[in-house]
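CHAIN AND CONFORMATION:

***
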Amino acid sequence: MKKHIFRKRRKKLRFMRLFCAVIPALAAFLLYLLLPLFPGLTETLFSGVIFRIIGVPLGFVFSLLPFSLTEVLAVLALPVVIFILIFFIRRMLGSKNRFRTAANAGLKVIRVVSAVMLIYMLLHGVNFYRRPASELMGLDTSKKPAELLQSLCIDLAKKASSEREILKEDENGNAVLSQSITKTLSMSDDGYKVLAKRYPFLWGSVSRAKPVQLSHWWSYTGITGMYFPFLCEANVNIDQPDFTIPVTAAHELAHTRGFAREDECNFFAVLSCFNNPSPDYRYSGSYMAYVYCSNSLYSYDTDMWAAAASFLSDGVKRDIERQGEYWKQFEGKVKQAAEKVNDKFIESQGVDDGVFSYNRVVELLLAYYEKEGLPE
């Protein structure tokens, strides 16, 4: 009788441990289901308060490190996993009750995965469901006439060409950074400081993006930058052409400000570059905005595109060619697989068009241009 009661209590205890272990995962799942229905609540409570309470100090502390801690963890991940597997196998071989040993190990894994799910939701996932940037800034993103898009392309071509005149060039005539990569990335917050005075929701504590030392190999995935939410760390591929590095850094910093949608981060990156005192950033933002808008115009009317492209300087044209050449060398199955993974991940967050959502930045740029024009 006592053994029966003891087994019953032990079974109940195991159930309670398992239940407690999955509570964070259940909370994360509920947030995933419910927050899209309440963007106002998400904006005010989760993005505006909880994310900032956790993310701001976390991001500030890790931004003090001059190197990418994300990269260090990525390099260590494989040996750590191998070590854990070896340790587990040894424990299993030396255990008198292998079922209990395996069950305890499984419970620990569930606890870790469950906690990671909730942390991810609070530090990044919830920001997919906040109010759109267009609402926060009072922008009309309804369909605009092609003439307005062409006008924007012309102004961006002029702006990019003008900003590029004072930049350095390499032996091939392509724009290069005027300062070291460390100094350049340390300035990635300067544009946001200006923007935050008008748009307080863009305030943040992360003052710089981090260079990834294994960037050349990273390029095989086609990725230019990555935000690691568990550290609130912005990471940048520094092997890509110099003139695209600043806008990439600004894009990743937008994530540290509590924005998750890629089109919005592209938009804020461009605006922050426009307002950055560094000519490297101003050119990078103008260049990337032109590329996005020009591609959109080309798909609509090639004659209008050609007319807008005529305002580009030869230097900008060389840079566009250089960017295409750089990424062409990394075409292959690795890049295709990485793009598929990224596409499915973005879709899982409620963004139906996946990686194509990056291109919706044109809608935001057009709406901003119609309302505000381009900064001088």
